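Trying the structure run again after the queue cleared.
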Amino acid sequence: MSKVVVTKMSGTKSGDRKDLQSVVESRVRSPDTGQFVTVRTIDGGSKTFSKDLTYVFTRNVEKARRDNKKLSCAIDRAPSKV
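Done. Tokens:
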């Protein structure tokens, strides 16, 4: 079972989250690896749903690109399946 830890996230870019009050970031421990993972949830009834969704999608893409670069030292390449 995962333990949920709710805390304010620091280190976000200034201006990114000023008007995104309906995006909640939580850090939870992954049941598979035991490492902390950031989970972002969006309020479906928010007035700024499209901005919130764009923000969350952008953050996910940034993380995927960082991870891909760490794996293969190349930008925007899928890692080889072994």
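DSSP finds one helix and three strands in the chain. Worth checking whether this holds up in the mutant runs.
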